[in-house]
TrEMBL record:
Residues 1-26 form the signal peptide. The record marks 72 as: Transition state stabilizer. Substrate binds at residue 168. This is peroxidase. GO terms for biological process: hydrogen peroxide catabolic process; response to oxidative stress. Binds 2 calcium ions per subunit. It comes from Artemisia annua (Sweet wormwood). The keyword Iron applies. InterPro entries: Haem_peroxidase (IPR002016), Haem_peroxidase_sf (IPR010255), Peroxidase_pln (IPR000823), Peroxidases_AS (IPR019794), Peroxidases_heam-ligand_BS (IPR019793), Secretory_peroxidase (IPR033905). Disulfide bonds join 45-121, 78-83, 205-237. Its EC number is 1.11.1.7.
Length: 272
């Protein structure tokens, strides 16, 4: 993949993230709200974007790993019944408590932004809009391009752990991944582009160490892993070691939003 193509792909990723705020995962699925528009709160809470941005900036400056956490939260919220903030609802059998969401981070940032907005504009801004804005601001603070976020979503009142079964899983075969995206009106190109969101963030060793030591019960590593990269991964995730240890998904830009994720995949040097 040449440099110009990589740049184009990153731009498309930003555009697709913008699309997720209103289209395939926002308006057409219950909870998104078809009345979203840029400037929705202009007359009721005109400082909404600066307030959310300030909360996100404070959090990311204190802990840069919060940026990918907020981006991932947005995707996990949108992919399950639309961008309705149902991921925020607490409970024993909610989306938030489901295994696919066990490693989500950044909830305290949303709470902080919501608290500040309730002081300034009580009862006006939805949590769903805050999550969408926080995802955009996270990308920008990580060095990515900005985009206008249409607002006006309504918060969902229902959150079921069982609904998270349609989230793409780290060990899904490609055919399953493609079908899950197709069920949301997204194609293979959308899948490839959205995977680029992993240019920032980390993964727990427990999620991929089986590929390093006992792939498909062979007592051998996954043959698709670059053999030159394997010792580095094994050093980071020893066999039987701490499964909660975090490893960069993109060793070239763990906290920087760019195109090195695709470059490393071309060299089979990504840990995803």
């Amino acid at each position: 993949m040449e440099g110009s193509s990589l740049t184009k792909t990153v731009v498309m990723l930003v555009l697709l993230l913008a699309t997720l705020t209103t289209l395939a995962l926002g308006q057409s699925i219950r909870g998104g709200g078809g009345g979203t528009r840029v400037g929705f709160y202009r007359s009721t809470c005109r400082n909404v974007e600066s307030i959310v941005q300030s909360a996100v900036r404070t959090a990311v400056q204190a802990n840069p790993t919060i940026a990918p956490g907020l981006l991932r939260m947005f995707f996990h919220d949108c992919f399950v019944n639309g961008c309705d903030a149902s991921i925020l609802i607490n409970g024993a059998a909610t989306e938030k408590s489901a295994p696919p969401n066990g490693f989500l981070r950044g909830f305290e940032v949303i709470d902080s932004a919501k608290s500040q907005l309730e002081t300034t504009c009580p009862g006006v801004v939805s949590c769903a809009d805050i999550v969408a804005l926080a995802a955009r601001d996270s990308v920008v603070l990580a060095g990515g391009r900005s985009w206008p976020v249409p607002l006006g979503r309504r918060d969902g009142l229902v959150s079921r752990a069982s609904d998270t079964a349609n989230l793409p899983a780290f060990n899904d075969p490609m055919t399953v991944q493609i079908q899950k995206f197709a069920d949301k009106g997204l194609n293979i190109q959308d899948l490839v582009i959205l995977v680029g969101g992993h240019t920032i963030g980390t993964a727990a060793c427990a999620l991929f160490s089986y590929r390093l030591y006992n792939f498909s019960n062979t007592n051998a590593p996954d043959p698709d892993i670059n053999q030159a990269f394997l010792p580095q991964l094994r050093a980071l995730c020893p066999n039987g070691g701490n499964g909660l240890r975090r490893v960069a998904l993109d060793t070239g830009s763990v906290n920087s939003f760019g195109n090195s994720f695709y470059e490393e995949l071309e060299e089979w040097a990504g840990s995803n």
